[in-house]
Design a protein that fits this description.
Largest sheet: none
Order of helices and strands: HHHHHHHHHHHHH
Distance between the termini: 31 Å
Radius of gyration: 22 Å
Number of helices: 13
Mean pLDDT: 86
Strand content: under 5%
Number of strands: 0
Helix content: over 70%
Amino acid sequence: MRNSLIVVALLFLSSFLLLPLIAVFTEAFRNGIQTYVQALSDPDAQAAIRLTLIAAGIAVPLNLVFGVCAAWAVTKFEFRGKSLLVSLIDLPFSVSPVIAGLIYVLVFGAQGWLGPWLDAQGIKIIFAIPGIVLATLFVTVPFIARELIPLMQEQGTEHEQAALTLGANGWQTFWHVTLPNIRWGLLYGVLLCNARAMGEFGAVSVVSGHIRGLTNTMPLHVEILYNEYQFSAAFAVASLLAGLALVTLGLKSWLEWRHGESLAATRRY
């Protein structure tokens, strides 16, 4: 029975995960390394890569700050609205990314609630980098907080209370007591947050406007190339995202192996 289950699991993983991954890299290099390099050197591809890095570079640090603050508040204090805060953190998991993008269009679009005022001030949100960053922020909000909350709940407040009793202030307690205890869970959350930020498609697709060379991230650029039957170029850019997924998986596995006990608490939430 055990061997049969293992075989079924391996066949499933090979069919739905491993083979598509192999196909991406095979198609990317089908016409040779020169074609691959040319596809990645294309100005539009370079612009898509830069925009993806910009969006992730803004969204991940902001989510890092928010996630730590939210986890600290939820696990260390009792306050009115605590359950609402936890529910709001989970909201991006429940709302389709496409719906999230439409909400931003409704609020910030030319015909939206704030659109006319923003236009009068010369501020452009939708079909511009700010809208892409906002959409990326929305879909990545839960990742860091959700990794830290169960970990900090598991650890309790005894260490912090002891530090405060010995005369440490709030910041000293955080930097010298709390942060060292959560650093691996924090790194794990940042890793997942970054992977989602760079691979997001639905919400970004709605707010980007698909302006080639300006508002296309890597996933959107792959879609455009594929629709234009530029398969080698599409798979070349897709291979970068696949490579990111493999690196993320490798680092995730290493963190779980190296600090399994600390990270195991996050799986029990």
